[in-house]
Known about the structure:
By secondary structure, this protein is mainly beta. The chain is built from three helices and 15 strands. It has a six-stranded antiparallel beta sheet with strand order 3-4-5-13-8-11, with no helix packed on it. A three-stranded antiparallel beta sheet has the order 10-9-12, with no helix packed on it. Strands 1-2 form a two-stranded antiparallel sheet. The mean pLDDT is 95. Fe (ii) ion binds next to loops.
Amino acid sequence: MHDPFSAVRRYDPRAGTxxxxxxxxxxxxxxxxxxxxxxxxxxxxxxxxxxxYTVASAEPxxxxxxxxxxxxxxxxxxxxAEFFQTKGHLHxxxxxxxxxxxxxxxxxxxxxxERTGACTAQPLEANGIVYVPGFVAHRTVNTGNxxxxxLGVYPARAGHDYGxxxxxxxxxxxxxxxxxxxxxxxxxxxASLR
Length: 194
Ligand SMILES: [Fe+2]
């Protein structure tokens, strides 16, 4: 029988590892459609298809009141001017919230409420916490020079909906311009690339 009291894990905030978990890897080619600059994306894939992020998850139990959690490690890098970022998702169970706890590095979380369209970019960094309410799409962006490592805790039954984001993408894009981090409207970035 499953013993919840034996479910102690160890994590390493520098390496982004979690004991007993094999990290899932996301390489650049798997992020087709995420970045605004198609040409820069194709060039970066051709140049070596780098590892963009890993997620090491723990799923201790699957009951209605249970929690799952995972450590994400998002590597530093850019595609054109746009910083490395995760695919981003909504939860299949739309009202499921999530808490992100920053462990290492510096970045932003793009948040977008699918009911209102309201969007924001909130800092995610070591010693910071971002609360993601239900119905809010979330994507992590590494704006620093070292891995961005964070712990996400969410209802066991939240599930992941990547399809809605793959269709619509986020309204905001995070780029480096003149040595500064800027959050721009995707529509403006796409217009400037034409
Ligand atoms: Fe999530």
